[in-house]
Amino acid sequence: MSKRSMIVELLQGISTDQEATVKGWVRTKRGNKNVAFLALNDGSTIHNLQIVVDLPSFSSDLISSITTGACIRATGRLVASQGKGQSVELQATDLEVYGTADPNTYPLQKKGHSLEFLREIAHLRPRTNTFGAIYRLRHHMAYAIHTFFHQKGFFYFNAPLITGSDCEGAGQMFQVTTLDLANCPKTEEGAVDYSRDFFARQTSLTVSGQLEAEMAALALGGVYTFGPTFRAENSNTPRHLAEFWMCEPEVAFNEIEDNMDLAEEFIKFCVRWALDHCIDDIKFLAEHFDKDLVERLESVLEKPFVRLTYTEGVEILEKAVADGHKFEFPIYWGADLASEHERYLVEQHFKTPVILTDYPKEIKSFYMKLNDDDKTVRGMDILFPKIGEIIGGSEREADYDKLRKRAQEMNVPEKDIWWYLESRKFGTCPHSGFGLGFERLLLFVSGMANIRDVIPFPRTPKSAEF
């Protein structure tokens, strides 16, 4: 038996009239009493390989067991295809069924399925063309992230998933405990006695690896984290997940302008990588979900992102309201911009991605460096069409006294971040970083509308199935 070949390689049509063995899942089966045509997919490409089966050469029991969803091996002659839609096909000489799929119960028959229905069978949706394309894109975007930072001399740093500090100070964290919730030990004051918990203190799943990454950047120069983060935010929107992935670079000696330059270069690299390595999947998703997808991806690469201050952005939005544009949420200086405000700037006013800077300190985290006006911080958000914020970052506060004061103002307990504050006592320096929401990037490059459709098993309020 010849060695298994991947369908993506065979469809490149390098050579024909050779024996080949393929293994995969039957997408469709059609034919007549003499010949059957099987569309086989092995996950390596959006495209199927047509298997031509001469029915009299095989037992009827074998043929009847090959239905949509069945997993098979096919060995035969690879020849130039006479039909439309494929360059080559396999004329089967030997077939083996690894696993059958009962057509009466297999839910992925040849018909249209809504994305909502496919979320209910998330264990099977990778078998569809749509989610095969999305998960290949997800792989390539992860590979692009590692490639970009490796080429720039950054080091991949693993921040802990279990933490005792709340990076964002918002308190929306999932608690980690081994205590018996029905019979928690209590202190004399009646509070939960965390000294008897596994870590002897209150701990949670991380909302960000940033604080730990800063510690590494202050020794290694440039680092990045890339892994899952968790937020117990009760948001049932198409843009929020309780478990999602973040990429967070931190760079010693970078100030806010350097940070913006790095972020723009990084995201353009990822979009370019998608177009160069995933174009078949992107074209499929464009055809079925977002006809402007390829054009929008290419537009991101064409010119520099617009850069303006938060104050300038608010002035543009206030003028839009004065000219009759209606927003659901009010706009004023000091407001935390909603997605509709961000998308107006990107999609209607500038028609290109925007980097917004110098936000009011009240709506940003304690670790962002204060500007000289003592009102705004050197924060930056990159706003994208259809998405809104896709990257958020800042120059970090390097002054111990200012950082400690800001933490107190934001009610971040000093006992939880003493080590973070201490880093400003020993060899502090200017440094900056940002966070990319990985699923937000995938929404953009895939053209999908709901973030639940770009992660294999979405975790949302009241939903942790699979």
TrEMBL record:
A GO term for molecular function: ATP binding
Question: Keywords on this record?
Answer: Aminoacyl-tRNA synthetase, ATP-binding, Cytoplasm, Ligase, Nucleotide-binding, Protein biosynthesis
Q: Which reaction does it catalyse?
A: tRNA(Asn) + L-asparagine + ATP = L-asparaginyl-tRNA(Asn) + AMP + diphosphate + H(+)
Family as reported in the entry's similarity comment: Belongs to the class-II aminoacyl-tRNA synthetase family.
| UniProt-listed SUPFAM superfamilies | Class II aaRS and biotin synthetases, Nucleic acid-binding proteins
Q: Which GO BP annotation is one of this protein's?
A: asparaginyl-tRNA aminoacylation
The record's GO CC annotations read: cytoplasm
Pfam families per the record? tRNA-synt_2, tRNA_anti-codon
What EC number(s) would the UniProt record show?
Answer: 6.1.1.22
Query: How does the annotation summarize its subunit structure?
Result: Homodimer.
Q: Which PROSITE patterns match?
A: AA_TRNA_LIGASE_II (PS50862)
Record's protein name: Asparagine--tRNA ligase
As for subcellular location, the record says: Cytoplasm
The chain positions of domain Aminoacyl-transfer RNA synthetases class-II family profile read: 135-456
RNA-binding as a keyword? no
What class does this enzyme belong to in the EC scheme? Answer: ligase
Q: Which CDD domains match?
A: AsxRS_core, EcAsnRS_like_N
